[in-house]
Recover the amino acids of this structure.
């Protein structure tokens, strides 16, 4: 089983992915986390990805697709949760050739652009465990529960958020239509507290 989480940046994919992975025992692959780790390591992947990421653009399809398809192949006997992939129709086509439609459950978290801007500007992330904090949560100005420093992602700065939304509408939204034809997509309202959104997602999976 492969669960795919889609939705605009800031819709809560990362937060919901953490909850879903823990609740259903799924292996969580966040391509954003994978790429950020590669940038910190300074690996070949990180060097290729860095400039695209900090300017809010997508990393080229041929750079990320092979990495994810290898990962899926390697973990093919486990339940997987994909967070942040596929982001383009090219990536979705690559995935659709590697897996059976019956094994795919695609979930799209919907959120309006105004709410995306509000949320991303407030978001802080732990440098060590990648836990995501919104400004309204305790601890968001200090340190993560794991002791890691909280920071604002470069691409959560106002000038980059607008561009990421444009990229989402132009390149990632068509992926939802792709999955409507390939398998099916459940659309879930992303407004509200994380637990409320999680309950909506759970209702579609149980
Ligand atoms: P995220 O943490 O999912 O918001 O991803 C952060 C950044 O990583 C994106 O803005 C892209 O630059 C890059 N990225 C993550 N996943 C992908 C993907 N599937 N295809 C291309 N770029 C990606």
């Amino acid at each position: 089983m492969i669960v795919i989480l889609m939705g605009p940046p800031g819709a809560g994919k990362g937060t919901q992915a953490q909850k879903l992975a823990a609740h259903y025992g799924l292996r969580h692959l966040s391509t954003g986390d994978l790429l950020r780790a590669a940038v910190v390591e300074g690996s070949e992947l990180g060097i290729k990805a860095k400039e695209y990421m900090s300017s809010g653009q997508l990393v080229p399809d041929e750079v990320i697709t092979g990495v994810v398809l290898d990962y899926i192949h390697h973990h093919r006997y486990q339940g997987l949760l994909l967070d942040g992939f596929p982001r383009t129709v090219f990536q979705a086509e690559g995935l659709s050739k590697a897996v059976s439609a019956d094994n795919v459950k695609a979930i799209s978290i919907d959120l309006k652009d105004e709410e995306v801007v509000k949320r991303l500007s407030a978001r802080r992330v732990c440098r060590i465990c990648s836990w995501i904090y919104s400004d309204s949560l305790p601890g968001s100005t200090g340190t993560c529960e794991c002791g890691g420093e909280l920071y604002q992602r470069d691409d959560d700065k106002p000038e980059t958020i607008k561009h990421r939304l444009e990229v989402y509408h132009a390149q990632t939204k068509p992926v939802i239509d792709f999955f409507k034809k390939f398998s099916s997509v459940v659309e879930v309202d992303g407004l509200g507290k994380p637990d409320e959104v999680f309950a909506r997602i759970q209702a579609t999976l149980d």
User: Anything to note?
Assistant: The first strand starts at residue 2 and ends at 6. The chain has eight helices and eight strands. Residues 2-26+79-112+170-205 form a domain with the Rossmann fold fold (CATH 3.40.50.300).
